Amino acid sequence: MRNLTDLNRITTNPANRHQGGVGAPSKHESAIKHVTGEAIYVDDRTNHVNQLYAAIGKSQIAHGRIKSLDLTDVQAAPGVVKVITADDVPGHLDIGPVFPGDPVLVKELVEFYGQPLFAVAAKTHEQAWRAAQLAKVEFEELPPVLDIDTALAQQNFVRPLHSMQRGDAAQAIEDAPHNLESRLSVGGQEHFYLEGQVSSAIPTEDGGMTIYTSSQHPSEVQKLVAEVLGLPFNLVTVDMRRMGGGFGGKETQAAPWACIAALLANATRQPVKLRLNRGDDMVMTGKRHPFENHYKIGFDEQGRILGADITVNGFCGYSPDLSDAIVDRAMFHSDNAYYLDQVKIVGNRCKTNTVSHTAFRGFGGPQGMMTIEYAMDDIARHLGKDPLEIRKLNLYGQDSRNITPYHQEVEHNNLPEIIERLEASSNYQQRRQEIRQFNQSNRILKRGLALTPVKFGISFTVQHLNQAGALIHIYTDGSIHLNHGGTEMGQGLFTKVAQVVAEEFQVDLNTINVSATRTDKVPNTSPTAASSGTDLNGKAAQNAARTIKQRLIDFIVQHHGVEASEVIFADNRVHFGDQSISFAELAQLAYVNRISLSSTGYYRTPKIHYDRSKASGRPFFYFANGAAVSEVIVDTFTGEYKLLRTDILHDVGHSLNPAIDIGQIEGGFIQGMGWLTSEELVWGDNGRLLTTGPATYKIPAVSDMPADFRVQLFDQRNREATIYNSKAVGEPPFMLAMSVWSALRDAVSSLADYRFSPPMDTPATPERVLAAVKATKTFLEQKTAKVRTQEEVTA
Amino acid sequence: MTQTTIKFLMNNELHSVEHVDPNTTVLHYLRNDLNRCGTKEGCASGDCGACTVVVGELEKGSVKYKSINACITFLPSLHGKQLITVEDLKQDDQLHPAQQTMVDCHGSQCGFCTPGFVMSLYALNKNHPSPTKDTAMEALSGNLCRCTGYRPIVDAALNMGNYPCDQNTDTIATELLQTINRQDSTFLSNQSSQYFAPTSADELAQLLIDYPDARLLAGGTDLALEVTQFHRDLSTIIYVGNVSELKTIRETDSSLIIGSAVTYNECVHRLEKEYPELGEMIERLGSLQIRNQGTIGGNIGNASPIGDMPPVLIALDATMTLRRGHNTRTIKVADYFHDYKVTDLKANEFIQSIEIPKAKPGYQLKIYKISKRIDDDISAVLAAFYLHVEGPQVKSFTAAFGGMAAIPKRARHCEAALMGHPWTESSIESAMQALMLDFKPLSDVRASAEYRMDVAKNLLMKSFLEINQSKEQENTATRVTGYA
Known about the structure:
By secondary structure, chain A is of the alpha+beta class.
C-alpha cells in the first residue's frame, strides 16, 4: 500500500486494559450473529442462478446384491438434470476414512438398509428428493446380521479383536473372596445435530472444486473429494465456517455428501448442494456404537477389586469407519477411574448390516466406562454397602495402584480430592439418609442418589493426528486475522483460540477476527475431535503469535536500541524504555520497516507413545477428571422418572473461558443423560431404522434439565504444559451422566432394601426402569419363597 | 366475494402473495422465496422448533402473539395475520431483549436452534413480560437444543424482563391488520393444487360437497407432514381456521361446546377450570407451538390411535356434532372410531363441534399420559378414568385408553370388574386382570406390548391409591411430572 490508514479513525478501548484474554468469560464469537439469524450455515448461502440440488436413492434392504437398477423414471422426473451411479465415479469409489469398506455409491453389494445407491441432481431440492424415490431396483437378498450374538458366533468382525492384560485375571477372580459376573447392553445414540448434513460443491475454472461443508474434518473432505474425482488435492478447496452441531457426527459422516455433491457438480459443471432431510440423515449416517459388554470380577470383603475380566463388543455396522479406534477407546476406559489389579480387557469389533457406527462425543469411552460403573453398583449391593464407598475404595492411588491396564501411569490424580469436595458440597451423606426415609414412606415414588466419577484420556490414540497448524496476519490498522485447522461446531473453539492470541499480544479480543477453516489456509489438518481442538489449535496459534511477537521485539530492540527485556506488550500497547505506542502504531512501524506481520504456527503433542502390539505405552498426554452427584425420583408403577438435582465438580485445569467451559459441561452432561435415558434407537427386524425423526427419537427437552443444577469448575492448573495449563472439556463431561443412570438403579434397588442390583440396560427408558422394578419384585418374591421353604425344612 | 390474493404483514409491512402453490410452507417461503434464512429447518415435522416464528392475530382490537412452527404451517393460512421472524427483531442495531438476554446468558453454542429459541422468547416476552419459571419452561418446551443443556436458555428467559423493551410497534401492526379483508373467503390455485379458506360453516359445507376429496386443514400439525415428510402434494385444501362457527367456545348449564377449529391453547383455560387434570395433560400435549396451532377437532379427525384427547373425551362421554350440507347429526366420540384410521365420518361431512359434559358432582377424572419424555412426546399409553365412588362402592367407572388398540377405546371388561363393586385393592386387581380381555396392544418404537399392558394395569392401581390418599395425606407426591 502506498499510504497507511489514519489510526485516529479507529476507536480504541478507553479502559486500555486489554479485554477478553485468557480466563475471561467472553461471549461466543458468533453469539450476536446467532441471535439475529445472521450467522450463515451452508444451507443459508446464496444460491447460484444455475444451482442444482441433490438427493440420494437408498437401498430398501439390509443385505444383498443389486440385480438391476432401472433409473428411467428417475431420469424422466420433473427437474432432473443428472443421475449418477457407482459407474460414474471417475476416481476412487471407496471413501473409507481409515480402512476401505465405504463405497460412496453401492456398486453391487448392499450392506445396510438405506445405503446410497445413486444420486440425483435436479432444479429444486424437492424435485431431486421425489425423483430419487422412483428407481426400480431388484435385489438378490442375503441374510442380514443384525445382532451382536450372531456376529460373535460367526466371527463377523470389521477388524480383528484387540486385548490388553496385566497379570492373571482369571486366577485372581477365582481366588477372590467374592466374585460377580454380568452383562450389560449399552444403547447407541443419534447425534441429532440440529443442522443436518449438508455440502455444496462449486466447480472451479481449473477443473477443481470448491466445497462448502458442515464438517469436523475439512482436510479429509478435501482428500476424499479429490480422490473420487481423480484430482490432485491442490485443486480442491474446502471451506467450513461453522457447523450447527457436530458431536462426532460430522467427523467422517460429512464426507460422503461432499463427495456426491462434487461428483454431480463435476458431471454437470454446475454448483450442486446436497442437504439431507432429517429422516435421510438419521437413516444414512452412523451413530454412537451400541455395545454389549460383559464383566467378571473378584473382590475382597471391603469391595476392593482384585481381578477383572472385561469384554466389550462394539456394534460397528457394515464397515470399519473409525471403529478400531472407538473400540480401543472403550477398552482404554473400561477401568474408568479405578485400579484393576489383575486385569484382562478384550474388545471385539462386530460387523452388522446396519449403518456404519461412528464417532460420537466420548468415542467409545462412555460405552467402556459403563461396565465398570455397573460393577461398582453390583459390588455395593452384594456387600450391602453404599456404592460411593466402593467407588472411593477402588480409585487409582497416588503413589501405588496407579498403573492403568495399558501400563500408563496415572499422574496428578485429583479425583480423590474432587470426590471428597463434591461429596461434602452436595451433602451426599445427609441426603442419603433423607432418601432412605422418603422411600420407606412412599409406595409409588422412590428416590435414588449416585455419585460417579470420570477419568478421560486426552489425545488422539492415533498418534499422528496430534498435530495442528495456525495462521496469523496482523494488518496495518492493528487488526488481527486468525485462522487455524480447528472447526467451530458451537463448542467455542474460535473464541478460545482468539483469547489465546489476544493474551499473547495483550490486545482486545474484538481486534481479532477468526475466519472460516479452509484447506488452502492451513493444510493437512486433523479432525476437530477427541476434545483436542483447543489443546492443539490453541498451541499452534500461540506458536504463530509468538513468532510474530519475537520479530516485533527484535525489531524494537534494533530500531530503538532497547533491551529485549524492556519490551513489554500490555494494555493494547507496546512499552519499551520510557516510550509506549499503540499496537496499531507498532504494526504500521513494523510494516514500513519491512518486518513480516504474518506467520504460521505449528504444534505437536509431546510425551505420547503407544505400542499397540504390546498394548502398552502412554497414549494420553493427561487425563481430564470430574464427578457428578445426581438425584432422581422414579415412579415404580410406570417407570417414569425425573432428575431432581445434579451437582458437578469438573476439572478443566486453568479455564481459558469459564462461561464456555461451563456450557460444555452442562451441555455434555444433558446429552449424556439423553443417551442413557430417553434416546432409544429402534431397528426393525429387516434392519430398517424405525426412529427416523424427533417424533420418535427423543433427545432431552427443557423439562429434562434438573430443576436444581449446580456446576462448579475444579480450578487447578493442568500440571502438563498445555495451552495456559487448561484441560480439554469437549467430551469428558458427557460421562458425568452415568450418575443419573446409577441413581435410577439406586432408586429401584430401594425396593429390595438395596440388597438387589437390578439389571438396567440403556437407554433406561421408563419401560426399562419398569422392567427393573419387576425384576426387583421378582427377586423379593423368590427370596420370600426361599425363606418360607427354609422355615418349612427347619420345622 | 372471494379473494385470490393472500395478504399478511411481514413484520410491519403489508405483503401480498398470488398464485403460490398452496402446499408451500411458511418455512419454505421464507428461506427460498424471500431469502430470509435466519429461520432454520431442523426436522420439517414440528418437533424441534428451529423454525419457530411468531404470528400476530387481531383479537378484540389488539394483536395477540403466538409462536408457531413455520415448517408445518402452510403459507396461505397466514392471510390476515402478522408474521414476525428473527430478522425483524433487531432495531437500529439494538438487539431485542429476547436476543440480548440470550447473548448475555451464553444461551447459544452452535447457534442453529437459536433463532427458534429467540422467537419463542419473543412470544413469551409479548405475553408475559416477567415470566415465572413455569411459564418460561412452557414457552421453551417445543424448542430442542443439542448443545447447551438448556440451563443458560432458561436463565435467559427469566432475565428477559430486566431489559427495556419498546412495545409501540404493536399499534402499527393493529392498524395495518385492520386494513386486510378478513370477512371474505380466500381462494388460491396453481397448476396442480387449490386452496379454499371459507369464513362460514355454510360455505364450508358447500365446498365439501363440491370437492369431496378435499383435505381439511385446521392446525395442520399432522396434515402438513404429508407434504414435509412424505413429499406428497395435497391437491385440494380447505382451511377451516377462518370459519367463525368452528372457532367458538360455548357454554351451557351442563356442557362446554368447543368448535372443532378451536386450538388447544384457546380452550385449555376453560377446560382446566372444569377438569384440572385435563389442563395438566394438555400442557404436556405437543409443545406450545403445537398447541397454538393444533385443534381438538383435528386430534379426533385424524383418527390416530395415539391422540391424547380422544380417550379423555370418551371417558367423559363427550359427543360430537357432524355436519354434511345442511344436515347435522350428533354422535358419541366413542362411536366415531371404527378401526385403524376408519371413522364414522361420511363423505362431504365435517366435524363441527365437540360437546364435553361439565364435571358431575362426586365424580373424579384421572388422566395419565405415559411417554419416554415429559415434554412434547407422543404417548405410549394414555389412560383416562372417570369415576364416582360413594361410600365403599363404585357407582360409576368409565375407563378409556389410547395406545392400547388400533383406536382409542373404552375398557369394557375392566369397567365391569369395578362397576357396583367395593372400592378396594382387590377389586382393582380384578379390574387389572380384566384389562387383558379388553386389549391386545402392539409393540412399536414407543413401547412394547408388555410394557403397555403392565402400565395400563398399574395405572388403575395408581389411581386407586391417589384417590384414597387424597383423603388422608394430600401432599404426598404420586407423580414425577409434579417435580418441576
